[in-house]
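Exercise 7 asks you to align residues with tokens for two separate proteins.
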Amino acid sequence: MRRFSVTQQGVILLLGALLLLWLAGRAHLLRPPPAPPPGIAPLAFVEVNGPVARPGVYAFPRPPSLGDVWQRAGAPGAAPVRDQIIPSGSRVEVTPEGGFRLAAMSGAQLITLGLPLDLNRAGAPDLEAVPGIGPELARRMVDYRQRHGPFKQIDDLADNVSGFGPEKLRRVRPHLTLAPPGDRN
């Protein structure tokens, strides 16, 4: 077996390190991937379940109409209200009678898809999907909302819910939203 000199070993190690750095750069391990170009809107995600040919989560370039969702999932018959716009993050439950119910996706699905949870609608299990919010903190958030009514702003968490400080609020803020009062059910 051939032995390499110290100089040759150094060159081999240097080339190996450069190769690893190049591969890490290609895999975006050293820097985040670039942001999408300006003008590219984020996708709208809608979940469909019930007696449809293709249940699942679908991506649309903009919030779709119920007719678009109905067709994409292969729901039977015609959509009851073809032109109704379905907001991103919604779950359309098709009923056996050909009707539908509209609800929000689970908190885990919303977080996975990069969509925020509505602080005034999410239940404790949904809030637990937010990084940094455990079962006890989620319960305190829901308890406060039930006793005092809907949150007016996300900063209300730090002022009114034990366990929220400025750092935790900073970490959870990107994962939460407040629907306009007219949109709350």
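Second protein for Exercise 7:
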Amino acid sequence: MPDLIFYVLLVLALAAAWYSGYRSKGGNTSLPWRKNEQDYFVGLNYLLNDEADQSIDSFIASLEVNSSTLESHLALGTLLRRRGKVDSSISVFQKLLADSGLDNASLNKVKLGLIKSYVAAGLLDRAERLIDELKIADVELRYAALLQGLIVYQLEKEWLKAIMIANELVNICSSTQRQSFQLKASHFYCELAEKEMALKHYNQAREYLGKANAKSRQNVRVSLLTGKLEIGQGQYQKAIKALLKIASQDAAFKAEGFNFLVQAFQASGQQAELDRYVEQCLQDAPTPALLLSIVSYIEGSQGKAKARQMLLQQLAQRPSIELLGQAILLDAEADKQSSADLFSSTLDNFLKGKASYQCQNCGFELHQLHWLCPGCNEWGFIKPIVQQSESGML
């Protein structure tokens, strides 16, 4: 039923455009116009016989391109793209683009529609060429074209080009959007830094991370990557400084940096400072993920009994099924170990089915941390899931 409604509305719009074109010719009933009239009714017949694709093709072929029908063509191309009929959408826009009677402003609108259809079809090289042509268009069309360029270069992993586009968008966007594009550019620099780290080009990676930080000082990813880089280079104090910034950037990510901090503190012989940091984390109502990391650290450094004691204290203050499972395993006696293992294994399987991260923009849930949301294709909106209850944080 939704498809039928869609096509009925589409035909009505096209029919109105056809009639407008007919009226603009003064009701001329010469042979070419009679031919178009016949094509219109052929298309309508296809639709009534549930042959929607043929009806659309018939209308595309018969509808004249002029100032009266331009908006109908643009709407048709957009609707076809949104319905997944990308090839037909491209055909509509290409037909418009081939018409020499349109002015530059109209042609730029057509190019923008064609760019979006090319991107949807994965024809990124063609989209890129048209984007370059629209860089001299008016601000509104240029902005829309640059947004498509950002998508193209992300898909191609051309991060330097993506940064250039993001910088252009910062210059022409509204003040409320500027921070978003700066954050995107920061993530693009992080992508470059990760690539250089994998190649062991550490100085280049450090330079990219510096630029990423300059673009957005609230980007947690920069601090995490800097910490990892400096630990690998034996610069433990620099690593600690970077990782401690996470608490002020977004405290929900403290669990992501905890093990790196433990490694840096211990490697630099700062056990007392590490103990103070752990104690501060426990006082700051830590998330379950951070608590579990702390439990693992205490168990390894001070023994299972100490870890159990701390965990039970936290469990009384902040009930959590994750903490409960860990407490039962730590509390198991030797003759009950098999039952505890079975319970823990069952609980672990249950928890693995739960998402650990969620996009704050579109709600997409993930089991692992990603910086680019697969759902809405936005950067920096993925956050650890922190559940709340009446008794406090879970």
